[in-house]
From TrEMBL:
Gene3D superfamilies: Phosphatidic acid phosphatase type 2/haloperoxidase. CDD domains: PAP2_like_5. Pfam families: PAP2. SUPFAM superfamilies: Acid phosphatase/Vanadium-dependent haloperoxidase. It comes from Chryseobacterium pennipullorum. This is PAP2 family protein. Residues 122-222 form the Phosphatidic acid phosphatase type 2/haloperoxidase domain.
Length: 461
């Protein structure tokens, strides 16, 4: 009996132990389960930080700009017709392919990009297929007449779509190797779009929409192929640093406000104020050391000329009137030495002095009065044509680097141009030999001096 009691007690203790052990195990499993569930709950990513939103921003802005400029496309073309009415250069037929050719050139040279050659080609082919479907389906549905009247397939621009598809292709493959590739690619694509406009083959909205289609096509092409490969690229682990020679060589896009320091048409008696305009362009330099290099820029500046108010004392035909002069536009290019000094890894100072060439667009001069019986109340009296002139430029720039390959630059430049402007007056003056000789050989020598203050997006290579 005693043995039975002892055995029963041992069995009871064993059961209690097992029950306690099971209870502890179940509680532990439950706790681990809760931990696993909690660990899968990720904080919500803000909308504007989501990857698809970031990739959609540029195309969305371009499509919005195309819609916003649609009603003004003919007025915008008049600017082209005024400055470069006879422009004809077919560089855009070939330049559109330059970024893609660069990708394959770098691949064949052994420069590692995001992907290996096979996957690169598959991503590119998919992007081209998407771009072709989008462009042609819209072209032959919208049936917009080209500005030169040749065909009804203007919108969107296929050349521009191809150029930006190729630029985005270069950016995808080599932008993380060095941002200079991205800047060069998109700069080339922008020049292609500009060429379509200057050659009078497309309206501005056509070019803007084509750029948006090109970018979104490449994003979609890479999205689908990345899903197939189940990663973002073949060589991402190898591209941990920006390649370069550690010198401050750069390529930049710039935009700024131009402030006149002289009255541009003072000698012509058509301007009594210092004008404010804008400047945009490309700038770059190659450095042979950490301090010294050579570089240059190509830029366009435009200055509106404010009307002059006047009145005729001896002749009341017009009464009070205004003399309206069309804006002055300068296309300049120059080259010269550059000096650089790094204050730290983040801050860099650049100083330059360049000399070069400036071409100035011609324009018209009107008398404007409510007494003039025309739809615009304007009467053309003359047109002017400046001669090409020497331009010298000096400036300084302060750059903040986001990383070794990309920075934002605040720049200040001073430009000086000595321009000779010849005036051709109305045909009515030709009826009088005396007036014709007096007025149609008027040449004014003007001093065009102005400061530019602006920003550059600077990519180092």
């Amino acid at each position: 009996m005693k043995k039975i009691v002892i055995a029963t007690g041992m069995l009871f203790n064993l059961c209690c132990y097992q029950a306690q052990d099971t209870l502890q195990s179940r509680n532990l499993q439950k706790d681990l389960s809760l931990i696993r569930v909690d660990s899968t709950i990720q904080p919500k990513t803000p909308l504007f930080q989501k990857d698809w939103v970031k990739k959609s921003v540029a195309p969305a802005l371009l499509f919005t700009a195309a819609a916003a400029t649609w009603g003004e496309k003919e007025n915008i073309r008049e600017v082209r017709n005024r400055y470069l009415p006879t422009f004809k250069a077919k560089y855009d037929d070939y330049l559109q392919y330059a970024p893609a050719a660069t990708v394959y050139g770098l691949k064949l040279a052994g420069v590692k990009g995001r992907n290996n050659l096979g996957r690169t080609t598959l991503s590119y082919a998919t992007s081209l297929a998407i771009m072709g479907i989008l462009v042609n389906s819209i072209k032959y549905t919208a049936k917009v007449e080209r500005p030169d009247g040749s065909k009804n397939n203007s919108f969107p621009s296929g050349h521009t779509a191809m150029a930006f598809t190729n630029a985005s292709f270069l950016h995808k493959e080599y932008g993380m190797v060095n941002p200079g590739y991205s800047i060069a690619g998109y700069g080339t694509a922008a020049l292609t779009g500009l060429g379509r406009n200057l050659n009078n083959r497309h309206w501005l909205p056509d070019v803007l929409a084509g750029a948006g289609i090109g970018i979104i096509s490449t994003e979609l092409g890479y999205f689908f192929i990345d899903k197939i490969y189940k990663n973002k690229g073949d060589n991402l682990s190898l591209l941990s640093r920006v390649q370069g020679n550690d010198y401050p060589s750069f390529l930049a896009l710039k935009m700024g406000t131009a402030l006149g320091t002289t009255n541009f048409l003072k000698e012509s008696d058509l301007d009594d104020k210092k004008q404010v305009g804008f400047e945009g362009g490309l700038e770059g330099a190659y450095f042979f050391s950490k301090k010294w290099g050579v570089g240059g820029d190509i830029s366009f500046s435009s200055f509106p000329i404010k009307p002059l108010k006047a009145s005729l004392e001896d002749d009341e035909e017009f009464g009070d009137y205004e003399i309206v002069t069309q804006s002055l536009g300068f296309l300049g290019a120059g080259a010269g030495p550059y000096f650089s000094h790094e204050f730290s890894d983040r801050w860099q100072l650049t100083v330059k002095a360049t000399a070069g060439y400036s071409a100035t667009a011609g324009g018209k001069v009107f008398i404007k009065s409510n007494s003039i019986d025309t739809p615009t109340h304007e009467l053309p009296i003359a047109h002017y044509k400046p001669k090409p002139a020497f331009r010298w430029n000096t400036g300084t720039a302060l750059t903040y680097k986001f990383n070794p390959g990309l920075g934002i630059t605040l720049y200040a430049d001073y430009n000086e141009i000595k321009s000779s402007i010849r005036y051709y007056f109305s045909d009515a003056l030709e009826e009088s030999e005396e007036l014709n000789n007096e007025f149609n050989f008027v040449i004014a020598k003007e001093k065009i001096n102005y400061f530019t203050l602006g920003l550059r997006l600077t990519a180092y290579f």
